[in-house]
TrEMBL record:
The keyword Amino-acid biosynthesis does not apply. Coiled coil: none annotated. One of its GO terms (molecular function) is pyridoxal phosphate binding. It comes from the Bacteria. InterPro entries: Aminotransferase_I/II_large, AspAT/PAT-like, NHTrfase_class1_PyrdxlP-BS, PyrdxlP-dep_Trfase, PyrdxlP-dep_Trfase_major, PyrdxlP-dep_Trfase_small. This is Aminotransferase. Residues 33-381 form the Aminotransferase class I/classII large domain. GO terms for biological process: amino acid metabolic process. Its EC number is 2.6.1.-.
Amino acid sequence: MALSKRITTLTSDASGGWDLFLRARAMKAAGVDVTELTIGEHDIRTDPAILDEMHRAALAGHTGYADIPGIPALRDEVAARIEAASGVKTTRDNVLVTPGGQSGLFASHMALCDPGQNALFIDPYYATYPGTIRGAGAIPCPVAARPENGFQPDPADIDVVAAGGAASLMINTPNNPTGVVYSRETLEGIAEVARARDLWLISDEVYDSQVWEGRHLSIRAIEGMAERTLVVGSMSKSHAMTGSRIGWVVGPQEVVGHMINLSTHTTYGVAGYIQDAALFALRRGARAEEEVAAPFRRRREIALGVLAGQNALRLVPPQGAMYLMLDIRATGMSGSGFAEKLLDECHIAVMPGESFGAAAAGHIRVAMTIEDSAFGNALKKLVDFAQAQI
Ligand code: PMP
């Protein structure tokens, strides 16, 4: 029996990066002491106070079908958060609660792109992006951000790809995998292209609580952009709630209305007790988010110390998110060649840059997701390994 092309070609560009991740997991299962610096998962769990609230809400009966767009109190809280951060008037009618940011990205493309239309995104990119776009029937079109520009996207490059006709552009700041936070200049340039080419913007801001340098600026806050932007947010990274699957999309009321209809026919909403816990967590304010972000801030400092005074590895200045992007081109190796050898010889697993797109070739991504001293030691070994390759 034939399967749909949509599903069989969803990840036709699947890269070797995940092969390495799976090989590291298999080595671990076989008893090898592998240091994993691969995926973006905190080494802390969800705060027990949030779990207590989840439990309380479930026992209180919030276990039936919940409001599909999200419970009103949570939509209000998300709207207030987004309005406070961006200065753009936002109400619950602008908010759809989703089971995580990933489903928000998919639903956004479903809402904005017709089958066969081009959907742009910036390379290097979070690994699911092309499959998310294909899943919605659109055609993924990468726009390379260059390492020599510190991986800030160049609006002129976006314009060249958009000139072929496109429905949407997806951006991600703070960025996974590069750690780059888009500057105001970059965002204003992107906004100009979006207006000139009549593009929808999908702004993935799931790392907005992890900014180490400068300030996170949402493109929705730029003049004339609120009407053509969907912001995707999540509590996975900000509150260490990856497994709870809770996030949101914020955008124009009309688009959100259609997306509620899509939710009715797909997810049917998010569990009520998870939403209650999310509301409780958001109401704890910025301090709680800073606590979740603090280990990454510390490890970034550790990394700056370890990487100073050597030139085998060049650090792309990490301004946000829980990763380091290291340029390994001085070794003459590819990102995957380097990562494979590092795994075999040092039992350290990192993601090859190539698994995040062609623009990240010759780089590796290091997740800052293990305890501080183990992280510092692993980085030192990584530096020694890189030096030995030159
Ligand atoms: N966007 C980016 C850039 C991510 O790194 C992730 C998760 N790693 C997501 C979206 C999706 O996160 P979630 O579905 O857990 O909210």
